TrEMBL record:
Segment forming the signal sequence: none
Cofactor(s) named in the record: pyridoxal 5'-phosphate
This protein's UniProt keywords: Aminotransferase, Pyridoxal phosphate, Pyruvate, Transferase
PANTHER family, A to Z: ADENOSYLMETHIONINE-8-AMINO-7-OXONONANOATE AMINOTRANSFERASE (PTHR42684), BETA-ALANINE--PYRUVATE AMINOTRANSFERASE (PTHR42684:SF1)
CDD domains: OAT_like
Pfam family, any one: Aminotran_3
Official protein name in the record: Beta-alanine--pyruvate transaminase
Keyword Zinc: no
Sequence similarity: Belongs to the class-III pyridoxal-phosphate-dependent aminotransferase family.
Domain of life: Bacteria
InterPro entries hit by this protein: Aminotrans_3, Aminotrans_3_PPA_site, PyrdxlP-dep_Trfase, PyrdxlP-dep_Trfase_major, PyrdxlP-dep_Trfase_small
GO biological process terms on file: biotin biosynthetic process
């Protein structure tokens, strides 16, 4: 499609858009037709500063030549190869590169095509691991209120966002939820909040209720992104690690947003100094350019499966596109780009400027909380009475018209720009957002 073509409204009906107010969108479409570096081009030719790295995924910015070249070269060399009982070198190479940047305890990689699939895969590995070790009674999974773990049945069962769950029946049985970590006394905190480490102790209550020998795993986002950027209180993740270890419960970190430099370290596990047994990732794994997700596991988990006759499949799980050549090539090129440009740690050096610029919006109309860490930030607005979510959604539309892409969840504005953003672009993003908020 030529870049300047604006689809007429009657072109839009066939595509049932995900997580979108379809009728609203189709009456006033917001179309993106190209992207380069820190900017999208809108259908009317305007440049729009990307304040969200697409959907938390384009960590190296847009149109990175090494990645697009790797994809087109692989498409012309090995367009597809099965990963069931067959292999190709690029998938193995990417797995090696991934474990190199992950905490040393993470030794193996299982590929998926998305974050949702990575979550469901991680939950299945946790259940099967216990069974493989003769602890088949460990079937219970523990998530957290307000958690987002994608949209598979496993993910919405352990997830804690009510709108993502309530329409879809009974979900997985045997799931409990820890309380979320968003406390009013932590409002306007810069970085990790002080209060709330004890919320992890609720796991002891769940253990006392059901017995540790019925619990397979606890899954949390080390920093909850999609629900509106909820940060782990100081000491909270450490406590969760301690309690899970004490009871032989696996700890899964869902690093779909926090992976690949968002907080200033390759993964949040390194940033917080807390290492789980299993980690999920996706999004930034290929800079968002092509679908791919992955589950990283410890050696102990992987090795528990490597028993029995050698010709027998050890894990009856996988996807047609697990580790496909084009995504794998994109993954390698992405990691090379991140490493060459120092992006896995760049957020740490920008975090101070980011924090100051973000918190300068604290006195703007309707702002009730601001929170931040690495290159992620949230501005929570007071809801309009009787119309929750409307204030932030209106701000989102005005922001797009003003030339910045932000993301909203309920009445929370979330910001997570590409890690290539400059200090001047951070200022531009916040200045424009400030004007948008003042007009609200
Ligand atoms: C923590 C987390 N897990 C899982 C997912 C789902 O990923 P996907 O949309 O690629 O299925 C997301 C997406 O935002 C996420 O933030």
């Amino acid at each position: 499609m030529p870049l300047d073509r604006k689809p007429a409204p009657n072109d839009l009906s066939a595509f049932w858009m995900p997580f979108t107010a379809n009728r609203q969108f189709k009456t006033a479409p917001r179309m993106l037709v190209a992207a380069q570096d820190m900017h999208y081009t809108a259908a009317d030719g305007r440049q729009v500063l990307d304040g969200t790295a697409g959907l938390w995924c384009c960590n190296a910015g847009h149109g990175r030549p090494r990645i697009t070249r790797a994809i087109s070269e692989m498409a012309g060399t090995l367009d597809y190869a099965p990963s069931f009982q067959m292999g190709h070198p690029t998938a193995f190479e990417l797995a090696n590169r991934l474990v190199e940047i992950a905490p040393p305890e993470m030794e193996h990689v299982f590929y998926t095509n998305s974050g949702s699939e990575a979550v469901d895969t991680a939950l299945k590995i946790a259940l099967a691991y216990h069974r493989a070790r003769g602890e088949g009674s460990r079937t219970r999974l523990i998530g957290r209120e307000r958690g987002y773990h994608g949209v598979g049945f496993g993910g919405i069962s352990v997830g804690g966002i009510v709108s993502n769950r309530r329409m879809f029946g009974t979900l997985l049985a045997g799931v409990d939820h820890l309380p979320h970590t968003h406390l009013p006394e932590n409002r306007m905190t810069r970085g990790q909040p002080q209060h709330g480490a004890e919320l992890a102790d609720d796991l002891e209550r769940i253990v006392a209720l059901h017995g540790a020998d019925t619990i397979a795993a606890v899954i949390v986002e080390p920093m909850a992104g999609s629900t509106g950027v909820l940060l782990p209180p100081k000491g909270y993740l450490e406590r969760l690690r301690e309690i899970t270890r004490k009871h032989g419960i696996l700890l899964i970190f869902d690093e779909v947003i926090t992976g690949f430099g968002r907080l200033g370290s390759p993964f949040a596990a390194q940033h917080f100094g807390v290492v789980p047994d299993i980690m999920t990732c996706a999004k930034g794994l290929t800079n968002g350019v092509i679908p791919m997700g992955a589950v990283l596991t410890s050696g102990a988990i992987h090795d528990a499966f490597m028993q029995g006759p050698e010709h027998v499949i050890e894990l009856f799980h996988g996807y047609t596109y697990s580790g496909n050549p084009i995504s794998s090539a994109a993954g390698i090129a992405t990691l090379e780009t991140y490493i060459e440009d120092g992006l896995l740690t760049r957020a740490a050096s920008l975090a101070g400027h980011w924090e100051k610029a973000l918190h300068a919006l604290a006195d703007h109309p309707h702002v009730i909380d601001i929170r931040n860490m690495g290159l992620i930030g949230a501005i929570e607005l007071a809801p309009i009475e009787g119309a929750p979510g409307k204030r932030a959604f209106d701000a989102f539309v005005r922001a797009f018209e003003a030339g910045i892409l932000i993301r909203v969840t309920g009445d929370i504005i979330a910001l997570s720009p590409p890690l290539t953003i400059s200090e001047a672009q951070i200022d531009e993003l916040m200045d424009t957002l400030g004007q948008v908020l003042k007009a609200g």
